[in-house]
């Protein structure tokens, strides 16, 4: 089910609407609107706060749209629907703490990266799983279609992986003793562990990754604008400031 849950109006949008020409100029499907497909179950990158979708990606996307003179519209869909949505031009970009992978590059083009991340392992306190090797033969929960799902299925066997629609559901299954571990990105892991008693994150990381924004393959007009905006947001400290708002330095 596709829902449109959040609409951010760019500051100065009326003034700059003409700058977001749509079509050939910006490469967006709809004139004046930048449609971002996400899965808002991934704090601190995108999550629900009341009726709004907030988080690092939501704010960075709003800043990009602002620079393009576009209105940002956020579509909240299943994570594994984001790439199809972008490839079929129903959304202009996919931004969802999405890891750049060679496989995904077959279907979409990626912007410059804007974050580094890692896949980590969450286990209950007192678990006999203390390292990646100990995961052999255990039941591992993941969010469907994520790199955690893909890598765990490869390394530990499809039959040992339980897939959930939301990372939080995997974590709940872990607290209920239905599964032995969860593999998920480090920042959502920190949020979920802080919200649930009795869970820890293993020190040994599973995989290092980088996040970027996905656009339709060959949509260079849009990709160039997104890259230019991201590079400006990196250079002027806006990206760091947005990240610092959501992630406390440790
Ligand atoms: N970074 C992971 C991936 O790209 C998970 C992203 C997510 O769940 N939103 O597959």
Describe the protein's topology.
Blueprint: E1 3-8, H1 13-16, H2 23-26, E2 33-38, E3 41-42, E4 46-49, E5 52-54, H3 56-68, E6 71-76, H4 82-87, E7 93-94, H5 102-105, E8 108-110, E9 115-124, E10 140-143, H6 147-156, E11 161-164, H7 167-175, E12 181-185, H8 186-195, E13 199-201, E14 207-211, E15 214-216, H9 220-235, H10 238-246
Helix pairs in contact: 3-9
The structure holds glutamine (GLN).
Glutamine binds at residues 39, 42, 79, 96-99, 143, 146-147, 185.
Q: Summarize the helix and strand pattern as letters.
A: EHHEEEEHEHEHEEEHEHEHEEEHH
Strands of the biggest beta sheet: in what spatial order? 1-6-2-7-15-8
Helix- and strand-based class? alpha/beta
Bound molecules: glutamine
Short description:
By secondary structure, the protein is of the alpha/beta class. Helices cover 34% and strands 26% of the residues.
Describe what you observe in this structure.
The chain is an alpha/beta fold. The chain has 2 domains: 3-114 and 212-246, D-Maltodextrin-Binding Protein, domain 2 (3-Layer(aba) Sandwich), CATH 3.40.190; 117-208, D-Maltodextrin-Binding Protein, domain 2, CATH 3.40.190. It is 34% helix and 26% strand. The strands form 3 sheets. A 6-stranded mixed sheet has the order 1-6-2-7-15-8. A hairpin with a 2-residue loop joins strand 4 (46-49) and strand 5 (52-54). Helix 3 packs across helix 9 (220-235). The longest helix has 16 residues, at 220-235. The chain is globular. The structure holds glutamine (GLN).
């Amino acid at each position: 089910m596709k829902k449109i849950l959040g609409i951010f109006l760019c500051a100065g949008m009326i003034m700059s609407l003409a700058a977001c020409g749509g079509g050939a100029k910006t490469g967006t499907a709809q004139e004046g609107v930048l449609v971002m497909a996400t899965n808002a179950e991934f704090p601190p990158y995108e999550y629900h706060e009341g009726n709004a979708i907030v988080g690092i990606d939501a704010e960075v996307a709003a800043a990009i749209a602002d620079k393009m003179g576009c209105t940002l519209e956020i579509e909240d869909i299943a994570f594994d629907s984001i790439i199809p949505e972008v490839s079929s031009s129903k959304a202009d970009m996919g931004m969802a703490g999405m890891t750049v992978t060679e496989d995904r590059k077959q279907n979409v083009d990626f912007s410059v990266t804007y974050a580094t991340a890692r896949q980590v392992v969450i286990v209950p306190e007192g678990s006999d799983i203390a390292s990646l090797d100990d995961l052999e033969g255990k039941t591992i929960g993941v969010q469907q279609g994520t790199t955690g799902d893909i890598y765990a299925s490869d390394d530990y066997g499809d039959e040992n992986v339980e897939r959930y629609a939301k990372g939080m559901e995997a974590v709940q299954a872990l607290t209920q003793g239905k599964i032995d571990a969860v593999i998920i990105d480090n920042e959502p892991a920190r949020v979920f562990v802080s919200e649930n008693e009795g869970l820890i994150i293993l020190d040994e990381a599973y995989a290092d990754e980088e996040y970027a924004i996905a656009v339709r393959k060959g949509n260079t007009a849009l990709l160039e604008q997104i890259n230019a905006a991201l590079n400006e947001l990196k250079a002027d400290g806006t990206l760091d400031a947005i990240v610092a708002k959501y992630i406390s330095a440790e």
